[in-house]
Amino acid sequence: MEKKIEIKICIGTLCYVMGGSELQLLAEHLPEKFKKRVDIIGSTCLDYCLDQEKYGKAPFVEINGEVMAEASINKVIDYLIKKY
Amino acid sequence: MIYSNNATLLRRELITKLAKLFIEGDIKDIDRIPLQIAPRNSVPIRGSIAKDRAILKYMLMALLGYNISDEEDELMTLAEYAKKSLENHNPGKNILTVVDEACSSCIKTNYIVTNLCRGCVARPCTLNCPRHAISFIGGRAKINTDLCVNCGKCMEVCPYHAIVYVPVPCEESCPVKAISKDENGIEHIDNDKCIHCGKCILACPFGAIMAKSQIIKILKRIKTPNEKVIALVAPSIIGQFKASLPSILEGIKRIGFDKVIEVADAAVTVAENETEEFLERMEKGDDFMTTSCCPAYTELVKKHVPQIQKNVSNTRSPMHFSAKYAKEHFPEYSTVFIGPCIAKQFEGIYDECVDNVMNFEELGSLFIAMNIDVSKIDAPEKISNESEIGRWFAASGGVSNAIAATITDPSMVKGLKINGINKKTANLLKIYSKKCPGNFIEVMACEGGCIAGPVTVCNPKVADKQLKKFFEDNKK
Fold first, then answer.
1. Interface subset of A 18-77, CB within 8 angstroms of B
2. For A38, B145, B170, B408, which has the most beta carbons within 10 A of its beta carbon?
3. In chain B, what are the domain boundaries?
């Protein structure tokens, strides 16, 4: 069986207000081949917003532990396709 | 579809920075914000850093409560505007203002000739143009923008489909043709026509249309030691954040409001009054009654469909009832309505019980500025169901449902819903004025209802899901 992919979406208020609410629709936009492999978890603030210089701008998601700044549905899907 | 674009996010960033400065007592440094957002040597978005900064300055001016056209002296600093705004500046009675520096990027006429033009012999474009606006230069058709009247005949007749229609987004979005170009090609809002629906704010890809904000006036109230402030929170707050309703309300309290009231409580009264009024009107033989809670809709009727003015419910809006309740029970408090809406800001100016109006975008930005994370606030999960039907007002169809739930005989109501005001539905109302197929018309200016308002923080589809889930969970 293929390895599971865990996507943590930050639902902290900052991420949410700065465009993160869109990410709540990620599950329904995932390509078929990822639907079973991906676990989407809503997470309280991941604290990346505290260091904009290091991590970039909100909204943040974590994909198997790797942080993505300015995350959007398309950006996450592109990343999945490239990497997995 | 992605809802929050870079223009929206930039506005939120500006509100956050402005609020932060005020809270930290450094509002005098406001002129540094454009420099922080567009630093030297960064890649300009609109051609040059100087232009980017100028636009940011004007956006901030609107956030301080000014019309951009109020500018008399280009050298006047934002710090001075802020100072005046906090003293006794009267923002006037219009809400929307155009950042002219940011505008003007759109084409003058809607039709342009692309390079697919073959310069044919037949030239039906020139023959069919009623204004003789098309000439041939270098073997290719060219439209004289001074003569073109946007009729579109040239596009229809071109055998190569070489002429295309290019929309001007704000003009396209305006349901009442209130926004158009002035002689310099800059958009201008006609306040005699504008219904303050805010659709142009969402539509403009350059973020050139701003609502004049009351945010620093509200912050000043909150920070004044002896002043007590009540927040009146619109029902559509449910679903705006990834947090329970009690957590959001607690978050609003932490901003510094002394009391927080759900406007849904008052919406129950509105549903009761409207039901009673409906029955009276039917008894009297009226054709139909239509709702009065959406302020963009009531403006639409006033300015564009006056023939149905007599059919608009005389019951005032939930915001008014909520503010009236607050003023009666807590007369020493000021009232701040918090909602998803631009038009409510306009309604607030004329409502004797409402002191200020703030929107969800400003609320979200305030949460960020004050490090309040509502998703982390533990508040009691259980809330009262008493105002349940008032909370329905948040989405399209909600008012109709509330009336149906209040009336003894729901079969009396032959309801019609207009979910979103646009050019088409505005016309539909004119038809209804002559012959109406129902006896109760609910109209909400925003498609989806208040949860899809122009100044919300959440993608409307997500907000709708969360609202539905809230009602599901609350039933249990």
1. 18-19, 21-22, 24-25, 42, 44-45, 72-73
2. B170
3. 6-105+177-213, 110-166, 218-475
Residue B2's pLDDT is 65
Q: Are strands B333-339 and B228-233 parallel, antiparallel or unpaired?
A: parallel
Q: Which residues contact A17 (CB under 8 A, 6 or more apart)?
A: B12, B361, B364, B365, B367, B368, B457
Q: How many CB atoms lie within 10 A of CB B20?
A: 18
- Contact at CB, B375 and A25, closer than 8 angstroms: no
What is d(CA A22, CA B427) in angstroms, rounded to the nearest whole number? 33
Residues A18, B369 contacting (CB under 8 angstroms): no
ipTM: 0.93
| Pairwise CB contact (< 8 Å): A11 & B375 | yes
Closest chain B residue to A14, measured at CA: B368
Distance (Å) from the alpha carbon of A59 to chain B's nearest alpha carbon? 11
* Residue pLDDT, tens place only, B95-141: 999 999 999 778 888 999 999 999 999 999 999 999 999 999 999 99
Tokens 């701003």: give the residue: B210
Distance from CA of B206 to the nearest CA of A (A): 17
Measured CA to CA, the distance from residue B105 to residue B346 in angstroms comes to: 28
Beta strands in chain A (DSSP E): 5-10, 38-43, 61-63, 66-68
Instruction: Tell me the HSE value of B465 on the side-chain side, using a 13 A CA sphere.
Output: 12
Contacts of B390 (CB under 8 A, 6+ apart): B235, B262, B263, B264, B265, B266, B267, B268, B270, B271, B318, B402
Per residue in A67-82, pLDDT (tens digit) is 999 999 999 999 999 9
